Amino acid sequence: MLHSSPRSVSLLPSSSSAGLRKLLLPGPEVRPLLGRSVHMEPSRWAGHNKWSKVKHIKGPKDDARARLFMKLGLMVRIAVKEGGPNPLFNAALSSLVEQCRNHNMPKASIDTAIRTAEKAKAGAQHMFEAKGPGGCVLLIEVLTDNNNRTHQDLRYLLTKNGGALVDGARHPFERKGVVLAEARGMSPDDALELAIEAGAEDFICDQAELRSVRTSLEDRGVHVVSSGPEFVSRSPSLLDPSQLEAASALLEALNNHSDVMRVWDNIQPQP
């Protein structure tokens, strides 16, 4: 059941490019297991923060590229298992395939992930809550076939890097449907007006409606880069430069773990 909330649309500048804007639409209530969360971009594994110049956001290297393709392939399998292998009828898969292409993942690798999805044992998805340097809050989304092992690994990485697993830390985040689109010279007001015209004003985000808003925006000439459910911070943790460096090291360690799919944070640099 969807959780009813005040209906509004907000617009945030993208951390990845000055020419991109995110249209944020109120979404369903947060659940412990994120069966529909398949959105992934390497420069935004840390969630929707605006500290893109911190060292954990790097250019692609061979090992990082291999890890990215592996995780994208696993997420394609999850999307296929949940919604079927046809992107025309599976909005999550359609968005993820587009992201794979944007990251130059070979078509053969994408096709293989889709073909083997129904036979593969993708494991179970879990969400861990944690605190990091400076009191920042982290949501760690994992895909694992051994939750006890993953729990121990994450606890070790967090302890080693100034963090800890905690309970009840999810309150700084809201679950929202997110459409990432190229602004192409539009002002934030113009982009917001287009979103409202597309049906985003009175929107409660489920998968079907998110796809209809995306389609409506595309019909109005907006190039949509991706769309899907995400966690968006509503209560940032302000970190000083030394805390940002420590948080960067922690996020890098977490993202390098093979079971970790994404890490959402509420980090924001102090003014």
SSE arrangement:
Layout: E1 10-13, E2 20-26, H1 62-83, H2 91-102, H3 107-115, E3 124-131, E4 137-144, H4 147-160, E5 164-165, E6 173-182, H5 188-200, H6 207-219, E7 224-233, E8 237-239, H7 241-255, E9 260-265, E10 267-269
Parallel strand pairs: 8-10
Antiparallel strand pairs: 1-2, 2-6, 3-4, 3-5, 4-9, 6-7
Helix pairs in contact: 1-2, 1-3, 5-6
Quick gist of this model?
This is Translational activator of cytochrome c oxidase 1. The chain is α+β, with helices and mostly antiparallel strands and 271 residues long.
Q: Strand pairing plus helix content: what structural class?
A: alpha+beta
Report the uncertain regions.
Answer: 1-22, 24-60, 201-207
User: Care to count the β-strands?
Assistant: 10
Largest beta-sheet details: 4 strands, antiparallel
Shape: globular
Order of H and E elements: EEHHHEEHEEHHEEHEE
Q: Bin the strand percentage.
A: 15-25%
Number of helices: 7
- Give the averaged pLDDT, no decimals: 72
Main β-sheet, spatial strand arrangement:
1-2-6-7
Determine the N-to-C terminus distance: 40 Å
Tell me the number of structural domains.
1
- The radius of gyration is 18 Å
Q: What is the percent of helical residues?
A: 25-40%
InterPro entries: Integrase-like_N, TACO1_YebC-like_2nd/3rd_dom, TACO1_YebC_N, Transcrip_reg_TACO1-like, Transcrip_reg_TACO1-like_dom3, YebC-like
Domain TACO1/YebC-like second and third: 126-267
Domain TACO1/YebC-like N-terminal: 49-118
Pfam families: TACO1_YebC_N, Transcrip_reg
